[in-house]
Amino acid sequence: MTILNTEGTKPIYVQIAEWIETEIMNGHFNSDDKVYSQYQLAEMYTINPATAAKGLSLLVDENILYKKRGLGMFVTADAKEIIMNKRKNYTFKRLVQEIVLEAKRLHISDVELIEMIKSAQSEEGE
After folding, report:
1. 4 or 118, greater pLDDT
2. Across residues 35-54, what is the average pLDDT?
3. Are 66 and 76 spatial neighbours (Cβ–Cβ below 8 Å)?
4. Residue 72: beta bridge partners?
5. What is the DSSP string of 7-26?
6. Strands 65-68, 72-75: parallel, antiparallel or unpaired by DSSP?
7. Any residues with CB less than 8 A from the CB of 13 and at least 6 apart, and which?
8. Helix 79-86 crosses helix 12-25 at what angle (to 10 degrees)?
9. What are the angstrom distances between the C-alpha of 14 and each of 3, 75, 93, 107?
10. Mapping DSSP to helix (H, G, I), strand (E, B) and coil, where does residue 65 land?
11. Which of the four pLDDT bands, split at 50, 70 and 90, describes residue 3?
12. How many Cα atoms occupy the beta-carbon half-sphere of 26 within 13 Å?
């Protein structure tokens, strides 16, 4: 699997957490499903188990996963909603702000920007 970008600035444990979030969003893990253990993740991505554990802990801290002592990590009932709200209110908002800022730098009008977004949406829908 090649989900990890070891050349970028984003920490590996954050990438692991985001990958699990995406797996939950895509329905590969549902409420109360057991997710991969730190050792499974470490083997899958050839990383240190402590790094994988840090990614899982991040999701526990955000109430996306919960621990069952001796059994592993499981998906919370509200996981999808938490992830959607986080990505919408933080990730997506930041991306839009970056796009708007870059459009201003390049003197792209609001109309042009909206047309570019519509064009990208139609290309994605094809």
Report:
1. 118
2. 94
3. yes
4. 68
5. SSSS-HHHHHHHHHHHHHHT
6. antiparallel
7. 51, 52, 54, 55, 58
8. 120
9. 12, 17, 19, 34
10. strand
11. confident
12. 7
Judged against a pLDDT cut of 90, whether residue 1 lies above it is answered with: no
In the block, which residue shows the tokens 């730098």?
105
Amino acid type, 57: S
DSSP string, 37-53: -HHHHHHHHT--HHHHH
pLDDT tens for 47-100 read 999 999 999 999 999 999 999 999 999 999 999 999 999 999 988 899 999 999
In angstroms, the Cα distances linking 24 to 102, 104, 108, 121 are: 32, 36, 36, 23
CA distance 35 to 74: 6
What is the token pair recorded at 115?
């047309």
Instruction: Read off the pLDDT of residues 22-33 as tens digits, 9 standing for 90 and up.
Output: 999 999 999 999
What is the pTM (predicted TM-score) of this model?
Answer: 0.78
